[in-house]
Design goal:
about 220 residues; globular; single chain; 7 helices
């Protein structure tokens, strides 16, 4: 009987020691996991863009303000800036065409350059080029949106040709880019392949499209 009780007590002590060891391991695992979860949460918060960190109300007001700024900027550009700039460069046909093209066509080219060099840019360069492309795009919208005041302004022919080519190219871009993209997706599905377009390829397409718009603006006055 004594031997039986001694054996049971030893077995109980072993189980207790094993339980304490497993409990210590689980506590250590929790202590290790907690900082890891916290670091993951911090990284997830840091990876969210500035826009995603805003509340829905702030986002709505930002959109309303942006739309109002584009509309107001459109009238300001066509009433003051564009006619004044046309008077400065209108005497030099090639220069005036390029200056007119820069407003919208240049924005498309800047977006393309950003996409082409995205993989080689540093984090700071990516941020700077993204901001520059976004601001340039807003200016392009101010110029490219059609309105009565835009059609009533009198501008030098070559300068107007550059503006017209860039603006029409900007407005046509969703259609010209969307239809081939949909066709490519459909063909890829029929062939059971993934429809992929790298960032570099898209960037070069943007750059090539902007060059075509510049050529159109430079040649259209000579075709009239």
């Amino acid at each position: 009987m004594a031997r039986g009780r001694a054996g049971r007590s030893k077995a109980q002590r072993r189980r207790n020691s094993v339980g304490r060891a497993s409990g210590g391991q689980s506590r250590r695992a929790r202590e290790v996991a907690m900082p890891d979860l916290a670091s993951r949460a911090a990284r997830g918060h840091a990876e969210r863009s500035w826009w995603e960190r805003q509340t829905q109300g702030t986002q709505a007001w930002l959109v309303i303000g942006a739309v109002g700024a584009v509309i107001g900027g459109h009238f300001l550009m066509w009433e003051l800036l564009l006619p004044g700039l046309g008077d400065l460069v209108g005497l030099v046909p090639v220069v005036s065409t390029v200056v007119g093209w820069l407003f919208c066509g240049g924005a498309i080219a800047a977006t393309g350059v950003t996409l082409v060099n995205w993989g080689t840019f540093s984090a700071g360069a990516r941020s700077r080029w993204t901001i520059a492309s976004a601001v340039w795009g807003v200016v392009a919208l101010m110029v490219g949106v059609p309105s009565r005041i835009a059609f009533d302004v009198s501008l030098p022919l070559d300068y107007w040709a550059g503006l017209f080519a860039g603006a029409r190219g900007l407005l046509s871009l969703p259609l010209l880019a969307g239809l081939p993209a949909l066709a490519w997706v459909g063909i890829a599905r029929l062939l059971r392949r993934k429809a992929r377009c790298s960032r570099t390829t898209a960037g070069w397409l943007f750059v090539a499209y902007s060059v075509v718009l510049l050529f159109w603006g430079a040649t259209s006055p000579r075709m009239v």
